[in-house]
């Protein structure tokens, strides 16, 4: 109650020394607006800052050869760096694609092989942060994945598709060494939907 | 396996962004705005709800997929790729020949295409999990088409070509180790097709009793509890049979065809079973716990047993067991088959039971109990009763601990404690208060149980008793954890309920050098737990080895397992010539034991070579699970064995093509045709029904499980049925996580609210003055 009283008082001061119902409502709306904008910014800030920390942790794990968590309480750790040299874009991917992991970076789906192994390695990330650049890739582009064990796998993009999340057609045990980068589609939508954008690539030697 | 599952987070699309880990919040500058999160949470809630309901509708399955099938049934391809409608079955005949330890079964099933169009039928049927399908014949009219084993892709190509050319063709593929699919192309209008498969399986021996089990379910999908046990044989089919709240297809009853009605099934779907039993020893009791039998005695050791015609409830597994007339079951059985220039030998050896010594080693027991939502109902009651039974068997010299888990876990004591009456009472109280709820996170409790603070302690036998229904999809991670951490612990899996994930259980127990006990009903708790404890308390036969006197033998299993009381050692070997002696030796507790078998005296046994090959393939799969071999090497080994021994595996299929084109060039055979060809009497609305609303969606906690089940279904479909010309879109489906944030939406909403408030502030004073 005291917070509301304080807000009322503050609003009252701005509204010309009198407490008015309208002013209180306006103040609350403004507050809610700022909170929402703040949350939106927070999501992006978190995504960006996490990548800085992850970059550092990934370098450490390359140096030590052991998984290094970016911060002590993280429940996942960096497993690969995904680069698209033509677009000068890169992101550090985390193990697993839980909602928490995806807030910080692309997630390597459990149960799919590591990039460069036989099968289809699948990485997923948010369309408006780490994988926003997927809308700019074109077939023929190269994707470079450096794994935490130091090995580097190169892939050439073969094509892109839009699929339903539950009908991806991605077989983690498919023949050949494949990579799939996945994000939500359409890129400019503001609500969540069942469609996913899949960038498929095949290993080049 | 190519349909190994992907472990995904809940994909509901409503993974909220807001709850970052508390620590991260601490670490990041959180703008002080989160202290007012209550306002925003209203906005957030709206966003999430919209997203959730959008995807809920998409998540329901209106059709059947082969992965849903628990019985052999003919499915007709539906209007969507990977979706099918079911046709009624006409007649099924099982002709079983038991020769000592091997069982050869010929399954003949006649189906009628009730439509007046040309259809492609997809036939899904279960088999015993150790069964090896090696022959298939397709009989269309007076034509008999014998199938060949070919590499899977090649077989599919041959099939698709024939299909396109209007030729009748059949393709048998392995969906899961115990679930097979048979696609039949170009079935004429009103035509009856006969499909005949043959498979080889070993008989099961437990103590005195030999038995066989035929997964035999006519009524599809919805079956009474005993029927669900068929599916407990299901290797990869974790949880596919879960009924009720966990069902991935909450509207499944709407798509149950009339054939499901048992009153109608009996007269129209007669099943005949004939078992030619040549036990190899004087028979005592021959009985079935599932069906009434009539028998004809041929001689002391052979009988013909058939289903009593008056009573043919073909709605559950058929089980038959036989015991010797007097004395114990022979403790040694040896059979051989000569194929080409090589002999194949199959042996059953039961080491003698040695009574536990007066001073047995005390046990350090860790009991792990699953109280996740999938266990709710009778399963939970059985699990609790089993665990309380186990706690009662502890002696004060033992140590113990109890761990319970759903998507959280709780450990009663931090480490094992002495089994004092007070501690046991506390544990029983803890167990009796458990309720089933929540998801199934099995890895943390497994790791906690395997973690051994005293790895070199020899005074205690460290035993883990794990009670669960195994409704999980990340088996591989479980296996890896067991392989890496088992140390001195032994893992005893207790499968609870009518349909535990027996693939998980069997292999986990194998890797954990323990046993798998299945408790199918509350009334079985006592007997099965008593058997388990007899094993836990009796000396184990360890360090088993086999030595062939003459020649080098390729033996499987490669490393002989430890045996518990009453368990036979079953082995198969390939050897240039079966002669000379085979010496088995090991330790029963602290007592050395050895047995010498004369290979030349082995009785002839048809199909031994196929069992050897099937068992070798299992060895390769285990090595792959333990990462002892590369996937490429494993595939090559499996392919070689399968082609040499004509077995259907995940890499090889049986394909038969009738060379005469039959379907007229003008007649269509497409998936789109099929909804028109629904069997008479079917209610289209009921089959393709309205999409259920979000109120039918599985509860939040179970989403992951439900989606996991769908993954199986989809992947099962994809494996076998995607036609060659279809895009990869219908192949194995890796469901993809939600990858959109609501940052933009929130930002936009926020700005809108700020603008609104500014508007209010500006307009407000003027209004008040005029008022």
Characterization of the model:
The complex is a heterodimer of chains A (205) and B (771). Chain A has 205 residues and is α+β, with helices and mostly antiparallel strands. Chain A is 31% helix and 29% strand. Chain A has an eight-stranded mixed barrel with strand order 1-2-3-4-7-8-6-5. Chain B has 771 residues and is an alpha+beta fold. Chain B has a domain of 124 residues: von Willebrand factor, type A domain (Rossmann fold). In chain B, 27% of the residues lie in helices and 30% in strands. In chain B, a hairpin with a 2-residue loop joins strand 12 and strand 13. The termini of chain B are far apart. The N terminus of chain B is likely disordered. The chains are: A alpha+beta (205), B alpha+beta (771).
- On the 0 to 100 scale, the average pLDDT of chain B is 68
In the CATH hierarchy, the third-tier topology of the domain at 76-204 in chain A is known as Sortase, Chain: A
CA-based gyration radius of chain A: 22 Å
Sequence of strands across the biggest β-sheet of chain A: 1-2-3-4-7-8-6-5
CATH architecture descriptor of the domain at 76-204 in chain A? Beta Barrel
Quantity of strands of chain B, as a count: 34
Shape annotation of chain B: globular
Distance between the termini of chain A: 67 Å
The total strand number of chain A stands at 8
Which whole number gives the mean pLDDT of chain A?
A: 82
List the helices and strands and how they pair.
The complex is a heterodimer of chains A (205) and B (771).
Chain A: H1 2-14, H2 21-64, E1 78-84, E2 89-95, H3 99-104, E3 107-108, E4 119-124, E5 142-147, E6 152-164, E7 177-184, E8 195-204
Parallel strand pairs in A: 2-3, 4-7
Antiparallel strand pairs in A: 1-2, 1-5, 3-4, 5-6, 6-8, 7-8
Helix pairs in contact in A: 1-2
Chain B: H1 22-27, H2 37-59, E1 73-77, E2 84-87, E3 89-99, E4 102-112, E5 119-126, E6 132-140, E7 143-146, E8 148-151, H3 152-164, E9 167-176, E10 179-187, E11 192-202, E12 204-206, E13 209-214, H4 225-232, H5 262-268, E14 271-278, E15 283-287, E16 293-297, E17 302-307, E18 318-324, E19 332-339, E20 342-349, E21 363-370, H6 378-392, E22 399-405, E23 409-411, E24 417-418, H7 421-432, H8 443-450, E25 461-468, H9 475-485, E26 490-496, H10 502-511, E27 516-519, H11 525-537, E28 541-548, E29 553-556, E30 569-575, E31 581-588, E32 591-598, E33 603-604, H12 608-625, H13 631-645, E34 652-661, H14 684-688, H15 703-721, H16 743-770
Parallel strand pairs in B: 3-14, 19-33, 21-22, 21-25, 25-26, 26-27
Antiparallel strand pairs in B: 1-2, 1-5, 3-4, 4-11, 5-10, 6-7, 6-11, 8-34, 9-10, 9-34, 12-13, 13-18, 14-17, 15-18, 16-17, 19-20, 20-30, 22-23, 22-24, 28-31, 29-30, 31-32
């Amino acid at each position: 109650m005291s917070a509301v009283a304080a807000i009322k008082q503050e609003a009252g001061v701005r509204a010309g020394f009198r407490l008015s119902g309208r002013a209180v409502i306006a103040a609350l709306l403004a507050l809610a607006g700022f909170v929402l904008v703040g949350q939106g910014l927070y999501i992006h800030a978190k995504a960006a800052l996490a990548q800085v920390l992850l970059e550092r942790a990934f370098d450490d794990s390359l140096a030590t050869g052991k998984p290094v968590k970016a911060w002590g309480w993280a429940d996942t750790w960096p497993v690969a760096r995904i680069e698209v040299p033509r677009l000068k874009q890169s992101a550090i991917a985390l193990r697993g694609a839980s909602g928490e992991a995806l807030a910080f970076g692309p997630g390597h789906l459990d149960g799919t092989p590591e990039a460069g192994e036989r099968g289809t390695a699948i990485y997923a990330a948010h369309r408006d942060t780490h994988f926003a650049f997927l809308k700019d890739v074109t077939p023929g582009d190269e994707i470079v994945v450096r794994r935490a064990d130091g090995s580097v796998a190169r892939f050439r993009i073969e094509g892109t598709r839009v699929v339903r999340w539950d009908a991806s057609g991605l077989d983690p045990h498919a023949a050949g060494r494949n990579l799939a980068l996945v994000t939500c589609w359409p890129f400019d939508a503001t609500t969540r939907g069942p469609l996913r954008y899949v960038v498929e690539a095949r290993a080049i030697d | 396996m190519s349909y190994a599952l992907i472990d995904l987070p809940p994909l509901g699309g409503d993974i909220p962004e807001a709850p970052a880990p508390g620590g991260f919040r601490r670490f990041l500058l959180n703008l002080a705005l989160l202290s007012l999160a209550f306002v925003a949470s209203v906005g957030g809630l709206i966003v999430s709800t919209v997203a959730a309901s959008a995807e809920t509708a998409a998540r329901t399955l209106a059709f059947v997929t082969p992965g849903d099938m628990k019985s052999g049934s003919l499915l007709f391809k539906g209007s969507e790729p990977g979706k099918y409608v079911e046709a009624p079955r006409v007649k099924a005949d099982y002709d079983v020949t038991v020769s000592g330890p091997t069982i050869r079964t010929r399954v003949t099933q006649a189906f009628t295409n009730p439509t007046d169009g040309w259809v492609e039928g997809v036939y899904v049927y279960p088999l015993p999990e150790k069964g090896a399908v090696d022959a298939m014949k397709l009989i269309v009219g007076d034509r008999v088409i014998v199938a060949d084993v070919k590499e899977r892709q090649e077989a599919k190509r041959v099939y698709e070509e024939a299909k396109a050319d209007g030729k009748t063709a059949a393709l048998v593929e392995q969906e899961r180790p115990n679930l097979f699919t048979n696609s039949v192309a170009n079935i004429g209008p009103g035509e009856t097709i006969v499909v005949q498969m043959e498979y080889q399986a070993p008989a099961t021996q437990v103590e005195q009793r030999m038995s066989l089990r035929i997964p035999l379910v006519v009524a599809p999908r919805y079956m009474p509890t005993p029927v669900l046990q068929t599916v407990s044989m299901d290797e990869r089919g974790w949880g596919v049979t879960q009924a009720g709240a966990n069902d991935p297809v909450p509207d499944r009853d709407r798509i149950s065809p009339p054939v499901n009605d048992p009153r109608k099934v009996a007269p129209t779907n007669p099943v005949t079973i004939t078992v030619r039993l040549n036990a190899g020893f004087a028979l005592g009791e021959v009985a079935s716990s599932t069906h009434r039998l009539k028998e004809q005695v041929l001689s002391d050791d052979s009988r013909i047993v058939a289903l009593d015609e008056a009573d043919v409830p073909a709605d559950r597994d058929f089980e038959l067991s036989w015991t010797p007339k007097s004395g114990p079951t022979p403790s040694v059985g040896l059979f051989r088959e000569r194929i080409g220039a090589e002999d194949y030998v199959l042996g059953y050896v039961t080491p003698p039971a040695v009574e536990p010594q007066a001073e047995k080693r005390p046990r350090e027991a860790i009991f792990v109990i699953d109280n996740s939502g999938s266990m709710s109902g009778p399963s939970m009651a059985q699990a609790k009763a089993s665990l309380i039974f186990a706690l009662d068997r502890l002696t004060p010299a033992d140590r113990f601990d109890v761990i319970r888990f759903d998507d959280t876990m709780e450990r009663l004591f931090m480490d094992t404690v002495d089994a004092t009456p007070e501690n046991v009472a506390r544990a029983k109280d803890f167990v009796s208060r458990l309720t089933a709820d929540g998801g199934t996170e099995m890895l943390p409790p497994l790791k906690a149980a395997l973690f051994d603070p005293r790895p070199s302690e020899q005074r205690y036998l460290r035993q883990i008793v794990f009670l669960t229904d195994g409704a999980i999809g990340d088996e591989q991670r479980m296996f890896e954890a067991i392989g890496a951490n088992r140390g001195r612990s032994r893992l005893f899996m207790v499968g609870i309920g009518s349909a535990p994930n027996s693939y998980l259980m069997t292999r986990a127990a194998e890797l954990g050098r323990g046993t798998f006990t299945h408790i199918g009903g509350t009334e079985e708790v006592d007997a099965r737990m008593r058997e388990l404890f007899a094993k836990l308390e009796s000396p184990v036969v360890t360090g088993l080895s086999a030595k062939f006197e003459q020649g080098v033998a390729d033996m499987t299993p490669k490393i002989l397992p430890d045996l518990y009381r009453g368990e036979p050692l079953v082995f198969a070997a390939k050897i240039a010539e079966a002669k000379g002696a085979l010496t088995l030796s090991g330790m029963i507790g602290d007592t050395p034991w050895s047995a010498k078998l004369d290979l030349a005296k082995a009785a002839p046994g048809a199909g031994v070579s196929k069992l050897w090959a099937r068992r070798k393939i299992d060895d390769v799969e285990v090595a792959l699970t333990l990462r002892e071999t590369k996937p490429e090497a494993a595939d090559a080994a499996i392919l070689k064995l399968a082609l040499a021994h004509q077995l259907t595996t995940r890499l090889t299929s049986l394909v038969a093509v009738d060379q005469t084109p039959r379907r007229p060039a003008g007649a269509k055979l497409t998936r789109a045709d099929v909804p028109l060809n629904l069997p008479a009497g079917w209610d289209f609305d009921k089959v393709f029904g309205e999409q259920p609303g979000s109120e039918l969606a599985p509860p939040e906690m179970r989403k992951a499980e439900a989606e996991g089940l769908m993954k199986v279904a989809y992947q099962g479909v994809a494996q076998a049925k995607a036609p060659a010309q279809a895009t990869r879109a219908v192949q194995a489906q890796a469901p993809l996580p939600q990858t959109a944030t609501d940052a933009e939406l929130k930002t936009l909403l926020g700005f809108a609210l700020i603008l609104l408030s500014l508007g209010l502030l500006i307009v407000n004073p003027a209004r008040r003055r005029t008022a």
